[in-house]
Amino acid sequence: MLYFIPTPIGNLNDISFHSLEILQKCRLFLCEDTRVCKTLIHLLNEKFNLEITPQKYLPLHTHNEKDFLANIDENFFEQDIAYLSDAGMPGISDPGQFLIEYAIKNNISYEILSGSNAALLALVSSALCKKEFIFMGFLANKNPQRQKDVERLMLNPYPSIVYEAPTRIFNLIEEIVKIDPLREIFIIKEATKKFESKFRSSALKVLKRLKTMNLRGEWCVVVDAREKEFIQNTICEQDIYELDLPLKIKAKLLSKINAKSPKENYQKLLLS
């Protein structure tokens, strides 16, 4: 049997009895990162006085999963195997989905255990969801796709959940403020950990709060649904790139929205 085991996102006490039971019977662990997995097993053994003793840890993540599954023995899945991503539910902005799909296509018995999930924790904490919601995971890292992702986020008709890195959280809220400074937002970092921080207010007030905070840690953001009368009145860089205008004019327009000099934008346009 192949078991997908959600791991604590911070507090070790969030591990379920069912997960501990399965971990003790499996001898092969497939891991997003074997180092993280070994540390977790050591901590679980120590905290709960257990003897989780896998015979082998094998790395299986988004960079090697295709090659890994193409080269395994046909009897590989006849043993009890545990799959663990670094934190939270496998397959939710974490590796695991490809392996589940492989199991379905190849009639491999598998079980998904219930457990910690940062997105649902943040959503419930925000009190912004009455029924439907949208999970967007991590937005693109770079423009122009990131700009499009932010604009789509702001147009969603339901509360939307986004994961964000500490290096980009301020930029994300800043972009939201440009579009709709009064949009209600809930942010939480280091969920379930000792220094968990959470705050809900308008995008503008959230941005001001972030200026005084230590931004280190993993963030989850819940953005309220757009109001029916909300009209997006912003233009992104990609919109300007697509205009049929002389490069010098495009460069001047770009400088209005990205704070770069017309000369710098012009050089970038020449290379695009």
UniProtKB/TrEMBL annotation:
Domain of life: Bacteria
The protein's name in its UniProt record: 16S rRNA (Cytidine(1402)-2'-O)-methyltransferase
Domain Tetrapyrrole methylase: 1-201
Pfam families: TP_methylase
Keyword terms: Cytoplasm, Methyltransferase, rRNA processing, S-adenosyl-L-methionine, Transferase
PANTHER family, alphabetized: RIBOSOMAL RNA SMALL SUBUNIT METHYLTRANSFERASE I
BP terms from Gene Ontology: methylation; rRNA processing
E.C. numbers: 2.1.1.198
InterPro entries for this protein: 4pyrrol_Mease, 4pyrrol_Methylase_sf, 4pyrrole_Mease_sub1, 4pyrrole_Mease_sub2, rRNA_ssu_MeTfrase_I, SAM_MeTrfase_RsmI_CS
CDD domains, A to Z: RsmI
PROSITE patterns in the cross-refs: RSMI
A Gene Ontology molecular function term of the record: methyltransferase activity
